[in-house]
From TrEMBL:
<protein>
    <submittedName>
        <fullName>WYL domain-containing protein</fullName>
    </submittedName>
</protein>
Amino acid sequence: MSLFRIDRIFDIEIIEEDPRTYMTLREWLSNEETKEPIKLKVHLTREGIRQCLTNPWLEQYVASDNEAGYMEMMIETSEVRFTGDFFFSLGSDAIVEEPAEMVSYICEKAQSILKLYQNENK
């Protein structure tokens, strides 16, 4: 099975339909095999919960009491930066506890942005 970025496709033509290869996004996400797993643990605010529930790859791992929540799941080690970028975008609505590599990555990103704004004001 091939995976293509939809924003890079200019033209597509269905040659033949094969029902054996049809797969929904949820099926594809659940079939993905983790080769180098690492534990992800995140505390969420109400807004963090809402944001995670809108993501098909995260929603099944969200546990909440409507005011606060958390997530625990295994992710691929190679996805630490990608996943870290998502949680960074949530700001204070998501606090990553594990893995340490992701916590460090998010801190480095925050410090880099802080330096940009501090230098801008001088």
